[in-house]
Amino acid sequence: MNTVNPSSPRRGYSLIELLVSLGIVSLLISLLLPTLSGARDTARGTACLSNQRQLGTAWVMYAADYRDRAMPLAYWSPADIGTGQAVYWWGTHGTSTTPVDHSRGFIAPYLSAALTERSVYECPTQAWGSYRAQGPFQQATSTYGYNGYYFSPAKTPGWASTIGHRPWRRIADVRQPSTLFVFADAMLPATPVRNCALLDPPELWTGSEWIANDSPTTSFRHQKGLTIAVAADGSARGWHAAGGDLVDEVNRIGSVGGAAGITLHYVPDAAEWR
Question: Quick one: DSSP state of residue 69?
């Protein structure tokens, strides 16, 4: 019977065999990476859909408690807050020494989530560290934008002086609820991008006419250039720009449908403002 001498030297890999093995491993990794990346992007998109559905449900619950009136985007004028901090749908504005207080946000009572990183307020594709935070405390607020421009014109800072005469909407009066955006992925064009919790439309009202908006805030950050949005009927899905102008090609920020999309997704009665 043949036996193996344990003290005899074992044959090692030759250089050629080692190089061939490394080449095979590298090939397998290169084949798997796109699949793994696609699975990761799909998971992030699924999480974003879930987040926005929760925001949409909370938005409806707010209206149910306030005689069907849509949630305001912010209270910032002295008539609303006196000398206190401005309060937004996601929480207080904060100061250089005082952090954001999410518990005072209009939507907070209807969400079992804190205003933190990787919370319902933050799209996983635009995680903390990938953008520059707004506000004096430089803290995470939200990477989703609320369509206050349509739902609460007089309570939308930055634009109230020109659109404040428009009615504060009730949910029962909303037109095209299946396509009208309530929340959507949002960012401000910059380097690096800045978060923006306001969903600015592709056109702005000047008081006498609609003009092109140089800084619409819809962010197409998901796989294949999608923005995820929740509509007034509670449905959430991904949308391509579909003719919308990307004001920031690198970061894919613009609007859905461009000027033609304003009445479908952002301001359904825009033609009646004239």
Answer: B
H or E element: which one contains 38? helix 15-65
| 57: phi then psi, degrees, rounded to nearest 5 | -65, -40
pLDDT exceeds cutoff 80 at 219: yes
Query: Residue type for 254, please?
Result: G
- Produce one character per residue of 7-30: b if its CB has 16 or more CB atoms within 10 Å, e if not: eeeeeeeeeeeeeeeeeeeeeeee
- Domain boundaries along the sequence of the chain: 15-273
Q: To 5 degrees, how large is the angle CA 90–CA 86–CA 67?
A: 60
What the block records as the tokens of 174 is 């909303």
> Residue 121: what are its φ and ψ, rounded to 5°?
-80, -10
CA distance linking residue 57 with residue 116, whole number of Å = 20
Q: How far apart are CA 106 and CA 216, in angstroms?
A: 24
- Residue 56 in tokens: 């949409």
The lowest-confidence range among 33-37, 57-61, 207-211, 238-242 is: 33-37
Beta-strand pair 181-185/144-146: antiparallel
Question: Any residues with CB less than 8 A from the CB of 129 and at least 6 apart, and which?
Answer: none
Provide the whole-model pTM: 0.85
CB 142 within 8 A of CB 119: no
* 87 strand-pairing partners: 75, 92
Give the H/E segment covering residue 238.
Answer: strand 236-239
